[in-house]
Amino acid sequence: MKSPVRKARESFTHSAFLRSLLTLILVVFVSLYAAVPVYADEYFEGEGTDGSPYLISEPGQLARLATEVNAGNTSYNAAHYKLTAAGRSCRAPTG
Fold first, then answer.
1. Predicted TM-score of the model (pTM)
2. Averaged pLDDT score across all residues of the chain
3. What is the DSSP string of 66-92?
């Protein structure tokens, strides 16, 4: 039979472990969330408005937009876009 002191020590150890684990999960989640770049600012010229639409001039930009939209990123839903690739193939990959 376990002594009350041993039970308390084991209970504290489990509680400390769970607190540490939850803290680690929270830190990882927050770090990943903060590390997600806002692609519109980095990859597209423009502001996404009617007067200043995001300018898509490279196939990679269109592919990035397709990836973000297909992944469920809703920040692009109400934005305005303009394809500026003159004479180039600028289409998103399928699949």
1. 0.46
2. 74
3. HHHHHTT-GGGTT--EEE--TTS---P
CB neighbour class for 8 (10 Å; exposed up to 12, middle 13-18, buried from 19): exposed
Q: Give dist(CA 94, CA 3) in Å, integer.
A: 65
Q: Which residues pair with 54 in a beta bridge?
A: 81
- Beta-bridge partners for 83: 56
Conformational region of residue 90, where left means phi above 0, alpha means psi within -120 to 50, and beta covers everything else = beta
* 87 pLDDT higher than 50: no
H helix or E strand, kind and range, residue 40? helix 39-43
